[in-house]
Design brief:
Glucose Permease (Domain IIA), about 400 residues, alpha+beta, two-stranded antiparallel ribbon, about 15% strand, 2 domains
Length: about 400
């Protein structure tokens, strides 16, 4: 089921990429510079494509995150299986050591049994030899012993000696027999314990074989997830590159549009775009850590915090050349002030002007919001000189 889902998602990522190519490759073409109205329309069309590019990028980013999550899940499963295999191997090693110990003890008992059996056989041989010798000598005749004795005491002594010899040999053989029986009993216990351990080892071997199969499956999942991540990241990189092309084309188009206005920047100090009580700059022009992505980024404008809906005014006289939206900047307005100077107001909540409007310094053009890539209500103000971002604060000095 997961494999089927992964295949569908992989196709989806590919389709997203192909759709992006189809829709946005035209961004790489130069658009003709004509009148403000026609050029503004061209910019609006370009911004529509940028908005679509933003949506495509969000989908590509989502695909990357999904692929990475699946990869992490697959790696977690593989690590869990590896841990189980390691635990089984450790237990198996301990069992092998115990089994070897039991085998050594069993061998030792077998040696002892062999030694005791040899002693028993030797004692039995001696006893038989003595009895045979006695029979060959005529056997044990109490009458003969009586008449050959020096007296009653001597007779009783010889009879007792003969009885003691038979009794001693009997006890000796009995002890050897009991010793052998005891050794056999211990050997049986050791053999039984060894059999239990060998059964447990067999169970562990079977379980390990099952885990090896699961491990191979997990490794395949990890490999597939790695491929999915690589594919998704490649698609995202391509989408971002194409989106950048569209953004660059927008800047070029803006430069062309500024030339068509035939207006000249009269110079002087710009007027602050927000009420004077909102003079604090939370993020200046230059390198910074992006508040959303957490990555180093060159900030080509300034951020001015203000409440939602605060009126944003034009910093100088000019012509509105852009009123549009993109994923990063949100809703924004661009004003051409002539002489290659343009001001850019982004993350706004709504507009108060349209493309082609002539505006005066201090005229309301939009309202503060947090559209696009933003973490709070503020105005992002950019100033461009010949399509190159410059520090806006340089234009507010007396």
């Amino acid at each position: 089921m997961k494999g089927s889902f992964r295949a569908v998602r992989r196709k989806a990522v590919t389709l997203v990429f192909l759709a992006f190519l189809f829709v946005f490759l035209p961004c790489a073409r130069m658009l003709p510079a004509v009148t403000v109205g026609a050029a503004g329309s061209g910019l609006t069309e370009l911004e529509d494509k940028l908005a679509k590019a933003a949506r495509q990028r969000k989908e590509a980013e989502s695909a990357v995150n999904t692929a990475k999550a699946e990869r992490a899940d697959a790696m977690t499963k593989k690590q869990a299986i590896d841990a189980q295999i390691l635990a089984l191997d450790n237990e198996t090693d301990a069992l092998v050591t115990l089994i070897e110990g039991y085998e050594a003890q069993i061998d030792e008992k077998n040696n002892e049994i062999s030694e005791e059996t040899v002693k028993l056989d030797e004692q039995y041989r001696i006893l038989r030899q003595r009895i045979r010798s006695m029979r060959e000598d005529g056997g044990v005749d109490l009458v003969v012993i009586l008449f050959e004795s020096d007296g009653l005491v001597d007779f009783l002594t010889q009879v007792d000696r003969f009885s003691c010899m038979l009794d001693y040999n009997g006890r000796l053989m009995d002890n050897y027999s009991k010793g052998i029986a005891s050794l056999n009993s211990m050997k049986d216990e050791l053999t039984s314990s060894k059999a239990v351990l060998e059964k447990r080892k067999s169970e562990l071997d079977e379980r390990r074989a099952e885990l090896e199969v699961s491990k191979k499956e997990a490794e395949k999942l990890v490999a597939d997830a790695e491929k999915d991540v690589a594919t998704a990241e490649s698609t995202l990189a391509s989408v971002e590159a194409l989106e950048k092309k569209c953004g660059d084309e927008r800047s070029k188009k803006l430069a062309e549009l500024q030339k068509t206005t035939n207006s000249q920047y009269v110079g002087g100090v710009f007027k602050w775009p927000l009420p004077s009580k909102y003079e604090k700059v939370s993020c200046g022009f230059g390198w910074r850590i992006h508040p959303v992505t957490g990555k180093p980024q060159f900030h080509n404008g300034i951020d001015i915090p203000a409440p939602y809906g605060t009126a944003i005014t034009a910093v100088g006289d000019g012509t509105v050349v852009e009123v549009s939206y993109n994923y990063a900047d949100g809703y924004y307005v661009t004003i051409d002030h002539g002489g290659g100077i343009a001001s850019f107001y982004s993350h706004v909540s709504k507009y108060a002007v349209k493309v082609g409007d002539k505006v005066k310094c201090g005229q309301t053009i939009a309202y503060v919001g947090m559209s696009g890539y933003a973490t709070g209500y503020h105005l992002n103000l950019n100033i461009y000189k010949d399509s190159v971002a410059v520090n806006p604060l340089d234009y507010f000095k007396g």
